[in-house]
Corrinoid protein
Amino acid sequence: MKEELFEKLAQAVIDGEPEDAVAIAKEALAQGLDPLECITNGLTKGIQKVGELFASGEYFLPELIIGADAMKEGLGVLEPALVGDQKREVVAHVVLGTVEGDLHEIGKTLVGTMLTANGFQVKDIGVDQPASAFIDAVKETGATIIGASALLTTTMLQQEKLIQNLEEAGLRKKVKVMVGGAPVTETYAKKIGADGYAEDAISAVDLAFRLADAPE
């Protein structure tokens, strides 16, 4: 019965059914199942499968978005039920935002959802954020990773400015910077001194795991 509910939770995420994810999560709690197990063996397995289907080209952005949404809704039920020291282990703290002058939201929000689903603690500072806002958020949260998104060729320069400002603030050695957005490339990321480039939400999660494991 337990395994069956885990499978149903995973399937709700794979199918992108937020209402099902909520209903099954509530049913699992009502039956006394461990919320952490439900997250690990249900929701997380589901989002991993969604990621695989996206990477293989079977799923596209809409499926990825609704899958992440189902995961988020399920987490909303299960995370408050975690008790005491049973909190999910945090992989790393991430500050996420779209750079100054840029109002693009969807890609960044999806990256945030996928990172949260995979155990990262994410502070999303929103869109049109100056370098100082990223730095303030790092100081406030102790984050070791920044994700900076730029969707316009005119705002890409702000990613470079952010890295320069981190240097000036004496934080560059403590914080890994990953960049992304439609006009951004691997070559550009290297040129401005970023620690990595992600093309989409799935590769952003892979990159964040690598950066979280990277030595200081």
Observations:
- The domain at 93-213 is CATH 3.40.50.280 (Rossmann fold).
- Strands lie at 93-98, 121-124, 145-149, 176-180, 196-197.
- The radius of gyration is 18 Å.
